[in-house]
Sequence to fold (514 residues):
Amino acid sequence: MTEINDVASLIIQISLMHAKQSAAASPTSIVFTGATAPVASLGANKATHLRLQALTRYVGARSGDSRVTDNSASQVVLVVDGAVKLIASASAGRTQVMGFYFKDDFIYVPARETHAYNLCALKDCELVAFPATEFIRLAQSDKTLNNNFLSHLLRALSRCREKSLALGQKTARERVATFLVSMAERIGAPFSNGALLDLPMSRRDIGDNIGLTIETVSRQMTELRNAGLVSTSGRSQVKILDLAALKQEAGHLSGLS
Amino acid sequence: MTEINDVASLIIQISLMHAKQSAAASPTSIVFTGATAPVASLGANKATHLRLQALTRYVGARSGDSRVTDNSASQVVLVVDGAVKLIASASAGRTQVMGFYFKDDFIYVPARETHAYNLCALKDCELVAFPATEFIRLAQSDKTLNNNFLSHLLRALSRCREKSLALGQKTARERVATFLVSMAERIGAPFSNGALLDLPMSRRDIGDNIGLTIETVSRQMTELRNAGLVSTSGRSQVKILDLAALKQEAGHLSGLS
DNA sequence: CGGGAGTTTGACCTGCATCAATGGCAGTGG
DNA sequence: CCACTGCCATTGATGCAGGTCAAACTCCCG
Fold:
């Protein structure tokens, strides 16, 4: 799979001019801090730049903001900085957190259909949103952009399937372990034979993500702590002490490459 | 989203020559019966045809066959005819049915990773498989093929997210109703204000798909029958008597287009 | 140094899994 | 064509993982 980060850099740069003024209008005065890597490294052609620029819709969101994007049409969103969650709503106010997304992640946010999808900010964010149909049309004329988008979709599908497996088959203990392993891989700082995590989401968000209640999440965290697999400090700091053991706990298949 | 069926027709036709001899070698002597719509209607260019043809790997599978495709590398599979299930395995022999696929469906089957994925035939099948990386490379030089593949991925992601929502939030009753609604939309024959279904999968498959045991699936089917929403005959025939009511039961958001 | 939201812990309950037995469909051989 | 047979589905009885309800605690912010 090729690099998504490159596309992020491209889009950040393309968005800069647009963003600056929008940012000023935003209540929080968030400004872009993204890197401005040379576009040339991407291999994208000039036409792509100009047309992407025309599509760009900058979104600055404050922590806790929900319905960050318009959901009357499908959107492709890039997280420039911050952290967001994608939530789906069923009837009776139940919500499922479909996923968490961080710096340089792409998100495909479908239009409201049998269930409603919304993007919510977990902390102050800088996002760039594109109408999906136009983004896709544009990607078709630029191989690199298309390739990156495809990679993203395949990865998103893969992650979603992993989650389905977890939700359908795994116990509470395994789900929490799986969640921690996944977070370690995505936003963990390497640490001894484990990782150091600073989770931006609440216990409720975690529970809604892995299909458990906050109480059960909390209890499982306690058990993992008692088992010496993790240690915690404060609400969001989690130190994974033994990643291999945690993966075992997560019910992953062992003995592969 | 554009038509996937067209691509199916294309590939069927392209595969015909290849397939015929492979079919003869197959123990079941399955032969292609697919339509041979003119390739011109697809708008795919000639180079695409020739290269797709070179990639084509015909697979004839008998009902019950598992591990239909090689899982050492990711595959793109097209169901020419029949029905298959995509299963994922966690440790301890637990399996999750990630999805059911029917005529003209595309399937992206990832290589074995943290969990193993396998395709299993639910009835005698005619399939065409391509190595994913080469298929994608090829798709990049053909806009229509690329577009169709993208549509497929977006739909697959959408369905997978719906399943995550169901597995994470819904009750047994809602899950069974959701499953039936989904099947009605995909393989149901319209019938009064409902649909007629001939389910090719066992109760176990259904249970493994929606995260329930066979007993619970059976009990919920009975309850739905007692509630007058469906009627059944034999093991596989299900008649949905009131689709709207069943959707309500499925916990879908109401009051939308 | 309060105050309030988020978290942890405890007690209890429920929905679904598990275990067990019966019932019925489909494929086979007489 | 019908009886046999084995698998699959249904139904019932019971147990438990995780949900629910409730209370104490702790972090974080003003």
